[in-house]
Design goal:
Radius of gyration: 29 Å
Number of helices: 2
Structural class: alpha+beta
Number of strands: 4
Order of helices and strands: EEEEHH
Helix content: 10-25%
Shape: elongated
Strand content: 15-25%
Distance between the termini: 48 Å
Length: 94
Amino acid sequence: MPTYAFRCADCGDTDAVFPMASVPAWLDCRACGGTARRIFSAPYLGAGSSTAMKLLDATKRTASEPAVVEALPSRRTSPGPVSHNPLHAELPRP
């Protein structure tokens, strides 16, 4: 659920969590019991230190800073086991 900001004239700003369909325009202040009016502020887009945010940053970075290979690999790997079943020879090849 989203977090909404409310401002009390006496106590200042406070945050509250409501479903998007039922956000009130006014809220009772938790500190003084007065009326706190809903205010519009910049959205909270997430913490920049989270693991998911670090992964997104690393993925975006590969577009402008790709990994550079200095030389080809020294050893070639075998393609894998080959089937000698005659039915497999009739299968389409990629």
